[in-house]
């Protein structure tokens, strides 16, 4: 805590004005109790819960406690019974001094919600102090011949009690010359005066010793005594007289030591030693009096620092004594003027830290402020920094509560350093600063957030099971268990995707694993959603999309679609001997189930019956003649074509071709091979490709037929001959029989149509006439073959 002269920063200020105090005092009534001082500790003052209308159980649940300024523990609250107990013996004179009534102000503090109750405890005085004189002996010098009725002042006795328990009467021991008169002072105290009843005679009795007794009004009364020694002097006609019987002066409490307070003056009409006056403090109590007087000049000076807060005024009695023993007395009333010499004090009653986030207007701290100065010097202003989400609210008297201005967000700021500044309104202004740290506790108000909304993972097919294929990551801005994230797989949107058998996720770190080997040809990609859930209450979650792309591996060898590789019925291609070099014999068609460069195929001639006669184009698989054919070349040739992909390592397959050299296509040729049975089990991918190729070929053939039909319709409208006739020529009739010649393994008939005005030998094959004697499935096989040939340019 730091105290300094207050500056004027722009701060929110909460001024506790006197008008607010008056309004509060008018609108609220404190519960007041009264006990005698010196009551033993543990004494039950009252049942506070009952008097305030509170349930006993409420005291414990709301953390009830008693607060007194400066955090002194004078009273304690039994939260089980609601009784207000005395913590220690209380001495009224220590607690309040001469102030009457002696009232101690307490506050009952309750939390959840914060509530204050004012409680006052009045200490009544008991007669526990006896009167005490400042000196054991008083010396009076009285000249003989002094007239009866002359009054001589005596020093008063001190009694710390008040009211009737203080000094009420003075008596003196029995004698024939004096009696004591008791008088009231302006401050309520009583003082004695010695009155001469009978003239003194020095020759008869030069000295007297009397006992002065002070009695208080207690029951039973207490008393104190002192000795009054009287010395009888020769004649002295005049006593000293002060110019003023009462001097009134004001002294600032911060006056320097030895500064002049006031100068008193007395005169004596006698001459010589009897007219010489000496000044002195009448009571002579240098312990309690912070003043000293010059016995010759009568100047009263300050010998000890004044404190307005401790003693605001003094009544000092000054006595002037001449050389003959006569004396006069005056009173100096000194009022101590308050200056702003005390900085405000702040007492923290309760501090709630940490404070939960998201809570509206939460009480963070309860504290009280005090300043022992008076007037503006004791009025205070409380403030905190401007840039904080907190407010100061005045509550009970000098109590304040520090509350949140809005809901706090721990993720934005986890702690606040708050400086509470208390400034008084004196001149110069003094301030006290109190620093507190408010921690913000976490509430689960943030769902986990993935680092990406979607993740793309790559895994090569044929992976090993339990392979780590990637990770997802989510963070939570909360703290503690609210920030602990658990990962899980969410049910797939596609009900046919067997996600639990494909991947798994580590619940703690988000690592993803492939549970089984993946096959690119069966599953190229799949996607699913993962969830991240925190461990707060209630738990919050979020999700992200994960897409897994399966990378192809070269795990499929090329598959030859054409020619069909069948050991029982090898494919035979017909080549006329008159073919030119580069003549297209056939085309090897192959596919690869892989993708990318693993499916790039190349062709090469691996074996040949007669090397150099045929060649294979590397990129398209076309088999062509390499030179002119001669009669010396063998009629039958066997070619083995190697089909190889571009994978790493490469895979390959071979296709065997049988080539028959003929003089012309009209030469009959019937191979001995029998129709091959259908392949028992075809690869599913091959079937798909065959169907696709057949579909494309069918669409092409349909387009050709539509084109021909349109042409025929146009010729009909032009009155042209629209029917096909069979002209005289080399063809014997409407049907042309091809009996096993060429590349076909069965006999087929084709319908041929010649144009009537054709001057050339051009003809067109319109459609095959397939015999009904073909075995089941042979027609379909022939159709596929014809489609492949037509598609790849073999016809």
TrEMBL record:
Xref: InterPro entries: Cadherin-like_dom, Cadherin-like_sf, Cadherin_C, Cadherin_CS, Cadherin_N, Protocadherin/Cadherin-CA
SUPFAM superfamilies listed in its UniProt record: Cadherin-like
Residue ranges occupied by any Cadherin domain in the UniProt entry: 31-133, 134-242, 243-346, 347-450, 451-560, 575-673
Transmembrane regions: 687-710
Main location (coarse class): membrane
Highest taxon in the source lineage: Eukaryota
Keyword Ribosomal protein on entry: no
Membrane topology according to the record: Single-pass type I membrane protein
Keyword Repeat assigned: yes
Annotated SMART domains: CA
Subcellular locations according to the entry: Membrane
Name of this protein: Protocadherin beta 5
Organism in which the protein naturally occurs: Rhinopithecus roxellana (Golden snub-nosed monkey)
Name of the encoding gene: PCDHB5
């Amino acid at each position: 805590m730091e105290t300094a002269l207050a500056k004027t920063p722009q701060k929110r200020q909460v001024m506790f004005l006197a008008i607010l105090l008056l309004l509060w005092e008018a609108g609220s009534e404190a519960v007041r109790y009264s006990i005698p001082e010196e009551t033993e500790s543990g004494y039950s003052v009252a049942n506070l819960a009952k008097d305030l209308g509170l349930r006993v159980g409420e005291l414990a649940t709301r953390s009830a406690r008693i607060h007194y300024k400066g955090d002194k523990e004078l009273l304690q609250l039994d939260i089980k019974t609601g009784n207000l107990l005395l913590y220690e013996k209380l001495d009224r004179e220590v607690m309040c001094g001469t102030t009457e009534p002696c009232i101690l102000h307490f506050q009952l503090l309750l939390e959840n919600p914060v509530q204050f109750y004012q409680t006052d405890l009045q200490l009544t005085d008991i007669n526990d102090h006896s009167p005490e004189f400042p000196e054991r002996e008083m010396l009076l010098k009285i000249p003989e011949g002094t007239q009866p009725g002359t009054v001589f002042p005596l020093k008063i006795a001190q009694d710390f009690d008040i009211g009737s328990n203080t000094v009420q009467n003075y008596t003196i021991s029995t004698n024939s010359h004096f009696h004591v008169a008791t008088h009231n002072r302006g401050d309520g105290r009583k003082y004695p005066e010695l009155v001469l009843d009978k003239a003194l005679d020095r020759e008869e009795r030069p000295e007297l010793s009397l006992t002065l007794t002070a009695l208080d009004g207690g029951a039973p009364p207490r008393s104190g005594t002192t000795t009054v020694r009287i010395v009888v002097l020769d004649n002295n006609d005049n006593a000293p007289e002060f110019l003023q019987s009462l001097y009134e002066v004001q002294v600032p409490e911060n006056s320097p030591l030895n500064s002049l307070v006031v100068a008193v003056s007395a005169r004596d009409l006698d001459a010589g030693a009897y007219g010489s006056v000496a000044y002195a403090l009448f009571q002579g109590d240098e312990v309690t009096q912070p003043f000293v007087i010059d016995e010759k000049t009568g100047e009263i000076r300050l010998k000890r620092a004044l404190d307005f807060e401790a003693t605001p005024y003094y009544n000092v009695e000054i006595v002037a004594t001449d050389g003959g023993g006569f004396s006069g007395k005056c009173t100096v009333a000194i009022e101590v003027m308050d200056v702003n010499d005390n900085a405000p004090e702040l007492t923290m009653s309760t501090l709630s830290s940490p404070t939960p986030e998201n809570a509206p207007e939460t009480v963070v701290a309860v504290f009280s402020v005090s300043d022992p100065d008076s007037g503006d010097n004791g009025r205070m202003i409380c403030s905190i920094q401007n840039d904080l989400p907190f407010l100061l609210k005045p509550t009970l008297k000098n109590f304040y509560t520090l509350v949140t201005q809005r809901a706090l967000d721990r993720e934005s700021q986890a702690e606040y350093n708050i400086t509470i500044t208390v400034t008084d309104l004196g001149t110069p202004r003094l301030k006290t600063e109190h620093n507190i740290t408010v921690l913000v506790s976490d509430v689960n108000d943030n769902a986990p957030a993935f680092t990406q909304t979607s993740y793309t993972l790559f895994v090569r097919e044929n992976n090993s099971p339990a392979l780590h294929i990637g990770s997802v990551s989510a963070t939570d801005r909360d703290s503690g268990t609210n920030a602990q994230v658990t990962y899980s797989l969410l049910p797939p949107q596609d009900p046919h995707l067997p996600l639990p058998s494909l991947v798994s996720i580590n619940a703690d770190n988000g690592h993803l694993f492939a549970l089984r080997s993946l096959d690119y040809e069966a599953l190229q990609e799949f996607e699913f959603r993962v969830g991240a859930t925190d461990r707060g209450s209630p738990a919050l979650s979020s999700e992200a999309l994960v897409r897994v792309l399966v990378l192809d591996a070269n795990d499929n060898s090329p598959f030859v679609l054409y020619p069909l590789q069948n050991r029982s019925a090898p494919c035979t291609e017909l080549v006329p001997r008159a073919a030119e070099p580069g003549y297209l014999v056939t085309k090897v068609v192959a596919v690869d189930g892989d993708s990318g460069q693993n499916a790039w195929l190349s062709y090469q001639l691996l074996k040949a019956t007669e090397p150099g006669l045929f060649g294979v184009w590397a990129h398209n698989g076309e088999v062509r003649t390499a030179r002119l054919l001669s009669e010396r070349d063998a009629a039958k040739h066997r070619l083995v074509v190697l089909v190889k992909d571009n994978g790493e390592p490469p895979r390959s397959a071979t296709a065997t071709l049988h080539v028959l050299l003929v003089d012309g296509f009209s030469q009959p040729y019937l191979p001995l091979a029998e129709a091959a049975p259908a392949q028992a089990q075809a690869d599913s991918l091959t079937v798909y490709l065959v169907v696709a190729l057949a579909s494309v070929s069918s669409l092409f053939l349909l387009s050709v037929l539509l084109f021909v039909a349109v042409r025929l319709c146009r010729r009909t409208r032009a009155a042209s001959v629209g029917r096909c006739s069979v002209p005289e020529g080399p063809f014997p009739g409407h049907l042309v029989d091809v009996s096993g010649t060429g590349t076909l393994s069965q006999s087929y008939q084709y319908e041929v149509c010649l144009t009537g005005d054709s001057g050339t030998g051009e003809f067109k094959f319109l459609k095959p006439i397939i015999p009904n004697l073909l075995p089941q499935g042979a027609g379909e096989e022939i159709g596929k073959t014809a489609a492949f040939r037509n598609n790849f340019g073999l016809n």
